[in-house]
Write a structure and sequence with these properties.
By secondary structure, the chain is of the alpha/beta class. The strands form 4 sheets. Strands 1, 2, 3, 4, 5, 6 and 17 form a 7-stranded mixed β-sheet that branches. Strand 4 and strand 5 form a beta hairpin. The protein is elongated and about 65 Å long. The protein starts with 5 loop residues before the first strand and ends in a 24-residue tail after the last helix. Bound molecules: flavin-adenine dinucleotide.
Amino acid sequence: MPDEPYDVIIIGAGPAGLAAGLYAARDRYATLLLEKNGLPGGQILLTEHIENYPGYETVGGPELVQHMQKQVEQFDAEIAINKAVTGLKRRDDGMIEVDVNDGETTYETEAVILSPGSDYRQLGLPGEDVMRQATRVSYCATCDGAFYRDKHVLCIGGGNTAVEDTLYLATRFTAKTTLIHRRMEFRAQKVLVEELYAKADENNIDIKLPYVATEIVPNAAGDAIDHVKVRNVETDAIEELKVDGVFIFVGMVPNTSWLEGFVPLDANGYIAADPITMKTPTPGVWVAGDCRQDAAMQLATACADGVTAAMGLKEYFRDFPDSESWAGVEPEAIEKDQVRGY
Ligand SMILES: Cc1cc2nc3c(=O)[nH]c(=O)nc-3n(C[C@H](O)[C@H](O)[C@H](O)COP(=O)(O)OP(=O)(O)OC[C@H]3O[C@@H](n4cnc5c(N)ncnc54)[C@H](O)[C@@H]3O)c2cc1C
């Protein structure tokens, strides 16, 4: 166990964690960020084109992360990489023990900010990964829609996000949008589906049901999509679609399974918290970023969550409960379907 306990440990050094770390360390709390990857930065490392982070007309993710890391470290926050947190435990004296994946180290802290993010669910298609790296496959219309002005994109999915974001792309940016879904019925709310069909013709949206994508085929240079193969689920017929980009909207997976029992998670695994203070019902524990229930899943909002969470530390440390009052304190028991804000 490291010698001194920390005032606050931040789990996940993506934008939310780095923003929280900046505020916590600048307020002179002994701050440690634990990051499971070999680099801090989170999802934003995966993109070279950010146009919607205030203060930068355009900036690459890795460059922005470098600035964020430098800024955090200048206030003496520690960032420990290759440390995946596997579990948290509250002791009777109120301290929280943080276990990491080396099976040996346990850190001690008075407060925790949870910022492990969420991952976009991928389809695992041949060509998906290589075209994602070439920035031709995206999972976020708000992030990347503006790069497809007057282009043809293929959207994949049948839920609310798929329908809403197809409309978003088609009405604002694209010349043509094809939407495929593997079933004959969309899962999205009826009102959204009605809007989709009502606006399809005037916005050049081609809806193909029931279809699945089977392969994203790169061009010879490997820097753009040549075509996407899609299969009609009923007839097995394969078609080749010439598109400039693919948007995959098949959900997100929050990185929170290891938190079960320590903080309340909603039915999809997102961490429930007060949406104004970021406080979870577990004392001394805040949440920030894409792992939070109802998060906007954006860089700027993840940073804002991190700042808000770290600002809660002052009040908490002013009133830090004495050790006797911690014996037997358990997180509030809440049914999963009731979990919604606090
Ligand atoms: C390709 C791409 C392009 C994007 N473009 C834009 C854009 O243009 N504009 C925009 O606003 N948003 C964009 N986004 C979304 C934006 O990146 C996210 O909203 C933002 O990164 C969320 O920040 P976060 O800190 O909550 O989570 P993440 O960025 O997911 O960071 C979480 C961090 O926690 C770490 N972690 C997870 N589990 C553990 C654990 N158990 N222990 C320790 N560490 C852990 C992860 O390794 C990761 O580093 C994009 C996302 C992607 C993937």
